[in-house]
Amino acid sequence: MTTEFGVELGDGRLLHAYDTGGDGAVVYWHHGTPNIGEPPVPLFDAAERLGLRFLSHSRPGYGASTPAAGRSIADVAGDVAAVADAAGVERFAVMGHSGGGAHALACAALLPERVVAAVGISGLAPFEPSTAEGFDWYAGMADGAADSLRAAREGRAAKERALGAATGEEDIGFQAADWEALETDWAWFDQIVPPALVMGPGGLIDDDLASAGAWGFDPAVISRPVLLVHGAIDRMVPASHSTWLAQRIPGAQLRIVPDAGHITAMRQGAAALEWLRGFLVASA
């Protein structure tokens, strides 16, 4: 049973947090864009089998979490530390999907004394460091996904205009198998998007501005074990992003999943939890 609770921060903001409870080792879940922070229900059976507990929160601007305009990816570390403190959790692993991937990596980089290991699935690479090294950040992206992130690179006003002009018919890069997964084993995703936008698109805008802007940390400083999982045919966030991150993060493991897209890569979630459990048990 998932418990929901509020965490008041020192700056007066409130975070809406989630805890599946129990005395198992903790995996801190970082949700995608635009979602609320509810832990991934399709992975509950695997978590129970492995003796794991999920902890999470809705990022600022989503659901009942107070907005924080101008937030960076790095800012998530302080929020996660506050939620973990409120839940009485000292050490944990982190796992994020899509827009949550970078946030999981931020915690591994900035909370090394608390984060045991990290998993990022279908996540972006940082824009400026990668493009400075000759990486084509937009290569392989569907037009709708690339246009959305190009607008974010131009700033809030451009991103708001792009959202206002969106028709819903844009090609965001989902494969046929992704759409099928959203109707079957990962239909849960469709349950966490509407409540994420109940207060408007602010959380989504802030997420994209943070993802396309300066992250506030260098993935190369991560010293904890990292597993990056990516679908080989992902057109929303191409697998080249995880490949670049794997080359940047010391010792990172990379799993490119054949025939998997942006959503279907999450079918590797149970295996990723098992990977994390090994490090959690070793650190206990």
Strand content: 15-25%
Q: Which runs of at least 5 residues are low in confidence (pLDDT < 50)?
A: none
What name is given to the CATH topology?
A: Rossmann fold
What's the shape? globular
Radius of gyration using CA atoms only: 17 Å
Summarize model confidence as the mean pLDDT: 97
Distance between the termini: 24 Å
Helix/strand-derived category reads alpha/beta
State the helical fraction. Answer: 25-40%
The beta-strand count equals 8
For the record, what is the CATH homologous superfamily label? Alpha/Beta hydrolase fold, catalytic domain
Strands of the widest sheet, in order across it, are 1-2-4-3-5-6-7-8
CATH class: Alpha Beta
Q: Into how many domains do the coordinates divide?
A: 1
Order of helices and strands: EEEHEHEHEHHHHHHEHEH
Distinct helical segment count = 11
Q: What profile does the largest beta sheet have?
A: 8 strands, mixed
Would you kindly provide a written description of the structure presented here, covering whatever features stand out?
- This protein is an alpha/beta fold and 284 residues long.
- It has a single domain, classed as Rossmann fold, CATH 3.40.50.
- Helices cover 36% and strands 17% of the residues.
- It contains eleven helices and eight strands.
- It has an eight-stranded mixed β-sheet with strand order 1-2-4-3-5-6-7-8, with helices on both faces.
- Helix 5 runs antiparallel to helix 6 and helix 5 crosses helix 9.
- The longest helix is centred in the last third of the chain and has 15 residues.
- The two termini are 24 Å apart.
- The mean pLDDT is 97.
- This is Alpha/beta fold hydrolase.
- Pfam families: Abhydrolase_1 (PF00561).
